[in-house]
Structure to design on (463 residues):
């Protein structure tokens, strides 16, 4: 690196010149930041000399772990051969062809075509335009409304944030855009438990929200339903077992498209290639990003079903006026190919399902015994701990939502583990290459974090 400053001066320069994403800038002081300088496997090092276990795989993306020379070498080789060319005007190139073929092999059998972008957010912009264009092509131009769910995360562009169901995001920039309808989410611990229903009944009820919305708005107006198989940024919300089977029944009888947002769940996170495989759903679109390249370079895409691909190949469809300069970027595709080769060669999907997944889940569920934890849930390597003030009354919550989560998150960092706080829960999504020993260290740091948080809450009179 050319920049040669002390750790403090780096932080000061960052504070002076770099506006961070998803940050409350008024309270983000110079010394509140960590500057990450190096990473290897599941470990990060910062410029203050700390070693930290990356329990979030970067931002849910570094599935094959940091510092994989196979990916670095593949990108270097591709950049020397062809660092950039576009895919617009009847041109293509080797890496985008190879990657598309590879994706057709690992995605569900009825999905064989990909449109590329550079992120999950722009993939959802593509989805929005493709969904509406699909119904135009099919001669049903009134089908325009997309049903999504409250507390969903589908990205941060105008379309992504509109499809998402985050109130805070909608409050900035007059979102959502018209034609997007949000229904209730299948969040048992946060909302279902308080309803008086059993978990199974709540799952069915939340699924039937979809049917009620279709009835209310009219099936002839509804284009699609979009959902994450398991909500990620919303707090790793694993729906009740009854949820997806009921949604499937509704989708089977209704003439609408289904978008399974696989940006986090895809590529092994839940112990199957995709969340759609995990829950046995049949998507028309799968937005992908994150684990596609394990974050080594930015790449996203939309995998589509054969019926959608056929519609766009219909000669009556005309030109689809959509694309990005970096659609199918050669270096990013080379990173994705090398990344997917690692996933296959090291059998990471099977490893999460049969081996390291069950190991970490066992540690995680043991943390559920802690006096601060109301629920410990995990699917694959994708988990959350719900923090509660009174374990004898699980419906009770801390006043001032988010404060306890932040205290716990800060303790976690001090204990050498990256966990993220969502409201008053702690979430993890570590690299799929996590070893058994590292899983033990993760659980130990998480337990210490719960103990430290409990102490802080006691001393502040919050429990
Ligand atoms: C992260 C995420 C996105 C947005 O992806 P970006 O690459 O950050 O634009 C979309 N959907 C889901 C489910 C995500 O987790």
């Amino acid at each position: 690196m050319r920049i040669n400053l002390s750790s403090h001066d780096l932080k000061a320069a960052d504070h002076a010149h770099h506006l961070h994403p998803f940050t409350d800038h008024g309270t983000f002081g110079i010394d509140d930041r960590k500057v990450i300088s190096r990473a290897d496997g599941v470990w990060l090092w910062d410029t203050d000399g700390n070693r930290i276990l990356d329990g979030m795989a970067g931002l849910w993306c570094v599935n094959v772990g940091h510092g994989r020379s196979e990916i670095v070498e593949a990108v270097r080789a591709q950049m020397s051969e062809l660092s950039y060319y576009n895919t617009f005007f009847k041109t293509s190139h080797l890496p985008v062809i190879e990657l598309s073929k590879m994706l057709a092999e690992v995605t569900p059998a009825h999905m064989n075509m990909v449109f590329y972008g550079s992120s999950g957010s722009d993939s959802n912009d593509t989805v929005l335009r493709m969904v509406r264009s699909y119904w135009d092509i099919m001669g049903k131009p009134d089908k325009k409304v997309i049903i999504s769910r409250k507390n969903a995360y589908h990205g941060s562009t105008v379309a992504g944030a509109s499809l998402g169901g985050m109130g805070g995001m909608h409050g900035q920039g007059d979102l959502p855009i018209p034609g997007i309808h949000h229904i209730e989410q299948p969040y048992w611990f946060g909302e279902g438990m308080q309803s008086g229903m059993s978990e199974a009944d709540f799952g069915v009820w939340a699924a039937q929200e979809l049917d009620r919305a279709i009835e209310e708005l009219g099936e002839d107006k509804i284009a699609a339903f979009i959902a994450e198989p398991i909500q990620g940024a919303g707090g790793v919300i694993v729906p009740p077992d009854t949820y997806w089977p009921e949604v499937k029944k509704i989708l089977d009888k209704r003439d609408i498209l289904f978008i399974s947002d696989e940006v986090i769940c895809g590529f092994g996170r839940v112990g199957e290639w995709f969340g759609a495989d995990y829950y046995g759903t049949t998507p028309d679109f799968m937005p992908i990003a994150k684990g596609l390249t394990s974050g080594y370079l930015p790449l996203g895409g939309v995998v589509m079903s054969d019926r959608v691909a056929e519609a766009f190949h219909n000669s009556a469809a005309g030109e689809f006026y959509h694309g990005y300069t970096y659609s199918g970027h050669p270096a990013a595709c080379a990173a994705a190919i090398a990344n997917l080769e690692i996933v296959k060669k090291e059998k990471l999907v099977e490893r999460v399902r049969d081996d390291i997944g069950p190991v970490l889940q066992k540690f995680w569920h043991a943390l559920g015994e802690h006096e601060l934890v109301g629920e410990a849930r995990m699917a694959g390597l994708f988990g959350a701990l719900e923090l509660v003030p009174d374990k004898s009354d699980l419906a009770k919550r801390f006043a001032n939502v988010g404060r306890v989560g932040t205290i716990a998150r800060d303790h976690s960092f001090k204990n050498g583990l990256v966990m993220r706080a969502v409201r008053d829960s702690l979430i993890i999504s570590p690299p799929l290459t996590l070893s058994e020993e590292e899983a033990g260290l993760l659980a130990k740091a998480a337990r210490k974090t719960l103990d430290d948080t409990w102490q802080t809450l006691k001393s502040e009179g919050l429990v």
